[in-house]
Design brief:
Layout lengths: L1 E7 L4 H11 L6 E8 L5 H8 L4 E3 L8 H14 L4 E5 L7 H6 L4 E4 L12 H8 L9 H10 L2
Parallel strand pairs: 1-2, 1-4, 2-3, 4-5
């Protein structure tokens, strides 16, 4: 059984979709063991708590820099023994140390396609601009997801 750690900043719609996919069996052999938010009022954090999932607010203002904040998040996720980290609308830039701590085990679901199409509705922005295709980096995660969860 794979443990998923979710980082979110807002409504949690992507987190809820993952949670529901696990509940209905569309994603197998996995559960969400930890949810963390940088926003104390994130509805996704409240939803996680209501569903009995360990959910924490970690205030970025309590740390002297991004590196220290990320170290704290890494420690929490490692204590939870997560196998994969899902950035589900997480609106912070991760430090290289964070990425290295979970190398090849991070899935980013983000509402924007940075740097060209920031903010919400990025896919719509891209299509309206005339983009016919968008690239997604899945190669390193594909064997993990296909083999263990689908």
């Amino acid at each position: 059984m794979k443990k998923i750690g979710v980082l979110l900043s807002g409504r949690g719609s992507n987190f809820k979709a993952i949670y529901n996919a696990i509940r209905t069996g569309k994603i197998r052999n996995a559960f969400i063991s930890q949810v963390i938010s940088n926003n104390s009022e994130a509805p996704g954090l409240l939803f996680a708590r209501q569903e009995g999932i360990n959910a924490l607010y970690v205030n970025p203002a309590d740390f002297h820099d991004r590196q220290a904040y990320d170290e704290s998040i890494v420690n929490i996720l490692k204590q939870s023994e997560v196998d994969v980290v899902c950035l589900a609308g997480y609106m912070r830039i991760l430090s290289s140390d964070f990425v290295e701590a979970f190398k090849d085990r991070i899935l980013n679901i983000h509402p924007s396609l940075l740097p060209s199409f920031p903010g919400l509705n990025a896919q719509k922005q891209a299509l309206e601009y005339g983009k016919e295709s968008m690239k997604f980096i899945l190669k390193r995660l594909s064997s993990f997801w296909k083999t263990d969860l689908w």
